[in-house]
Design a protein that fits this description.
By secondary structure, this protein is α+β, with helices and mostly antiparallel strands. The protein is built from seven helices and four strands, in the order βααβααβααβα. Helix content is 39%, strand content 16%. The chain has a four-stranded antiparallel sheet with strand order 2-3-1-4. The longest helix is centred in the C-terminal third of the chain and has 11 residues. Bound molecules: adenosine-3',5'-cyclic-monophosphate.
Amino acid sequence: MSQTLAIIKPDATGNGKAGKILAHLEDEGFTVRAIRMVRLTRAQAEAFYEVHRGRPFYEELVEFMTSGPCIPLALEADDAVSRLREVIGATDPTEAEEGTIRKLYAESKGRNAIHASDSDENAARETSFFFPEAERIGSGR
Ligand code: CMP
């Protein structure tokens, strides 16, 4: 078993799809090890997406991620990082496979319903960003 970090984004919390996305993740076999709802400050969003600073979409991304509540989730499964990326689908919902979360719920490449860590190293960093060790239930980390 391994863990990864997902964030249900402000488009999904704002249009009433957060519960459906959480149910979808559980139906796909993920166990929720930590969950909270947060309204990110600009400084937090900039820090979280530091790796994208300077890219053309960075400012829009920070604006969007601070526009409403986010729900970070620490999720556990076998091969959690790669499995979650399969389940959420491509960044651009028009390119996402049928049945993926982004195909079902994302509006656009920017407003794309959910974030997922892209490597074990980033999963560890991103999970720590939102959850201190003590808040992770049954964590093997
Ligand atoms: P996410 O998985 O949260 O990681 C970075 C985010 O940048 C990505 O999802 C998209 O929501 C957002 N983004 C907006 N425009 C682009 C783009 N042109 N290319 C990649 N990511 C983009």
